[in-house]
Amino acid sequence: MKSSELTPLLFTVYLAAASGRSPALPCFAAFLALVRFSGLFAFTQLFFQTQSCEKNRIKLFAKITELLENMNAGTALLGVKFDIREEYAIEYLEGILKKYTELVGFDHGKAVHGKGNHKTSEQRLIEKFSEYIERLKKYAERIKICGNDRNSYSKTDHDATFMRMKRDHMGNDQLLPGYNIQCAVCDGFIAAFDVYQYASDMDCFQPLMERFQSLYGQYPEYPVADAGYGSYNNYLYCEEHGMEKFMKFTMYEKESKNEKYRNDPYRAVNFPVNERGLPVCPNGKEFHFIYSRPVRGNKYGRTEEYFQCEDCSGCPHKEKCCKCKGNRIVRLNEELTQFHAEVLNNLNSIHGALLRMNRSIQSEGTFGTIKWNRSYIRARRRGLKSLFLEFGMISCGFNLHKFHLKKVALRSAA
Length: 414
Prior knowledge:
Largest sheet: 6 strands, mixed
Helix content: 40-55%
Number of strands: 11
Shape: flat
Structural class: alpha+beta
Order of helices and strands: HEEHHHEEEEHEHEHHEEHEHHH
Radius of gyration: 30 Å
Number of helices: 12
């Protein structure tokens, strides 16, 4: 079976299992959960990082520049000078090497090697230059394999990304190569899933919702997820596609359960706004706008506004308000603050509490069954497509078994 055949198969199995629902409207609520599986063929110590490749490449450019200066000193009498740059393309360096070899009349067949043989300065330069070109090719290949969406990969499984994973019941984790598998669970069945290389769950939310929409022709009305999914991008995405916001954000637990933190008068989000639209601190001082800065990596153009207090000197609230030496600077995003307030209202309502409870039962229970009851705790295949096929078969088997158990329960109840 091909991986492309699994999507309609999962769709058919789910619709058959979710009896009593209209095929056009399979589920109102989708409970999102994730699991990270380390690769069976991705070994811990064998990996590359984009950041280290970039650093090494910059160092190598400096060495190439030094080598080119030595080559220019030798070719000055011939009236030839090679351009010095900050960065070098591989094709450009290969052209220089070919030109220099012709200028000095070096014959590779007469090159000497081994102990007791004296190499000429031209041979040393050519060999060193060739070595640098090969190293640049390796760095370019590694950066290409990593791509723009991740910063590492395993030598033995190029699709596996290094990410934090829980290793035991104590919650101890390690940096291991693996995959991020996301599932949308409806009525206890796996309605949609996908395999990602992203270590962050925030980046997986939108692709998973698009997959759900491609399968069932609509987005779930209530996507319920934990704090790993709540972000400005995902809240805007929900608003654009008519979904309610039921994804927790990072400080949700503290906001909802810690009354002292929630009502802290020294938090910038709790500052009252005067008639001029400026935040006012508990001491009655205004915070004036300084500048706004775009948030890195935000595709919706989110910006944060920075405000500075007009005068913090002699303030009786200084110790409780901030620890800075000068005037306090705060950053605010009014739209994100409104999203957080809406999410709090949604999740703390009776309907939200029921959805949160069901998510804990259905989505976490699904992965608990797969991992600990079925002993599937590690990926058996190598590569994204192969793992998609593997987990797709597991999802189909899980749905059929769940359907069988529901039929047995209904017969027993009757």
